[in-house]
Design a protein that fits this description.
Layout lengths: L32 H31 L1 H42 L4 H15 L4 H5 L4 H37 L3 H22 L6 H10 L1 H21 L3 H31 L4
Helix pairs in contact: 1-2, 2-3, 3-5, 5-6, 5-9, 6-9, 8-9
């Protein structure tokens, strides 16, 4: 009878690890249907306008040379102003996107990205600080220098704009005879305040950039608006005298509107500040 033969391995066999299954996330197209539709409408409108103007200019040249040159000058001036306005909007959106990129670079923790972003932002708001930033090798020291210099100065200036707007809102509410006019005043002054704060940070926003900034500051305005509703409800529940309730209610509404204006100024500054 032949005995069984056993072979023993000296080394331990490696452990088999299960390979992770790759998860493929479906990415949405960069251009959605509304964006493609609006782009097509814009191209058609501008393209046909240019073609129509070119044909009209050619017809005017056929009638008389001086009439053709006059028509051409009018067309060039009109389309030039239109192009300048579009370029101003695009430049404002690009500068707003630059703030987001600088914010990501300053929060990255990488020394070279922080140094480049620090010099870039200093060149926008305080060019005199560039020499000091070039001499600094520590990224934490560069961030501290930015916060203590242009960051603090711009925040203080934004708070000053907010206080000025708050005083104007309180005075306007006291002079307005209708609550609907109060709402219009607060809305107009809030939009103007956002544009002033953005210009303070060197953004110079147009219409689209202003809408983007208002979207970023909408959360703070919503929270303060909820506090205003709660304050008005509590005031109406506690006050029994109609005359006293009206007086204190209007005073509280003006105070809350002023507080909302201050919060809006700080929220706009946070949206425009890459250090925030």
């Amino acid at each position: 009878m032949i005995p069984p033969r056993f072979e023993l391995e000296v080394e331990t066999a490696p452990r088999l690890e299960a390979e992770p299954v790759p998860i493929v996330l479906a990415t949405s197209p960069r251009w959605g249907t509304p964006a493609l539709t609006l782009a097509g409408v814009a191209i058609l409108a501008v393209g046909f306008a240019v073609l129509g103007a070119a044909n009209f200019v050619a017809d005017q040249f056929a009638r008389a040379p001086w009439l053709g040159w006059l028509t051409l000058a009018v067309a060039v001036a009109g389309f030039g102003l239109l192009a300048a306005g579009i370029w101003r909007e695009i430049r404002a959106l690009l500068r707003l996107a630059t703030v987001d990129r600088l914010r990501a670079d300053l929060a990255s923790g990488e020394a070279h990205r922080i140094a480049a972003a620090s010099r870039s932002w200093a060149g926008m708001v305080d060019p005199g600080l560039l020499d000091a930033l070039r001499a600094v090798n520590d990224p934490d020291a560069a961030l501290a220098l930015l916060r203590a210099g242009p960051g603090q100065r711009l925040r203080t200036a934004a708070d000053g704009l907010g206080r000025t707007a708050a005083v104007q809102v309180v005075a306007g509410i006291a002079a307005m005879p209708s609550p609907s006019l109060d709402v219009a005043l607060v809305a107009w002054r809030g939009v103007r305040l956002v544009r002033q704060v953005a210009a303070l940070y060197g953004l110079r926003p147009g219409l689209l950039a202003t809408l983007s900034l208002l979207r970023r500051t909408a959360l703070s305005a919503t929270l303060v608006g909820a506090a205003e509703i709660a304050g008005n409800t509590a005031a109406h529940a506690l006050l029994s005298s109609p005359l006293l309730a009206q007086f204190i209610g209007e005073t509280a509404a003006a105070g809350i509107a002023a507080r909302r204006t201050l919060v809006l100024a700080r929220a706009a500054a946070s949206a425009c500040d890459p250090l925030a």
